[in-house]
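Known limitations

Structure tokens in this collection are predictions and should be treated as such. Users comparing against experimental data should check residue numbering before alignment. To illustrate the layout, the record for SP-RING-type domain-containing protein is reproduced below. The input appears on top and the generated tokens appear beneath it.
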Amino acid sequence: MIGSVPLHLRCKEFHSLKVAEIGGFLQNLKRQLIQSLEQIVTDSDSNELDSLIKDVCQNYEELRSNEESSVRLQRQVSEAKQQYKQQSETLPALSIETWDDYSREPAPSLKDFAAQNVEVELPLTQEDRILRALPHIWQDPQCLLPDDTEGDDLQIRGGRIELICPITCKPFENPMISSKCGHVFDSSGLNNYFESYPSRDCPQGACLQKLTLRDFKIDELMKLRCLLHLKKVRQEETNLDVL
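Generated tokens:
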């Protein structure tokens, strides 16, 4: 009895073998998690917020773990197929003449290669950056994150993230971030700044980047910082009223 034989090049099942792609599905779940997070911060009672945010963090960790498992399995199958095909090409094809040979010494099988472990490095999307930052900015909405120190892309004062728009000099309501230089301003301030101007220098001092309104998009991370900061301020005010 033959255990395994070299791959037949016309084997449709082999060529169609692949792992289902769930990256888009997981990415959509991350976006939904962020939307739920914003709703939680806005509507939840302050006494329940700590527990709810921990639940969000745990859900994200589970998503990330599932994503890593999926990517690893995809790579394992892809690399196993490639190695199995290459190995099969070096072996004599199954025939009457080679039948007894493969009965005595089976050819390597696909599962032999699929058992190999592979290292994976997951890409970081904007949703990942927000959800990874959550445990830190929940404790301190103005804290510096590891990535924040790598570039001058935020308003930083005394080692803290400034939650005040440099144009309006008021707390952010609708923070917008430049895709070119990374500086953040409130949408109302930007509309006034660019009124009657198709393009202007970045409003941030010492930044000479030429910008247009089209270069800005919503800064979801800054928006979340501001929501958490406002929630903490209101909780402190409530505690003082009780005293």
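For this record: The first helix runs from residue 12 to 16. The first strand starts at residue 156 and ends at 157. Please report discrepancies through the issue tracker.
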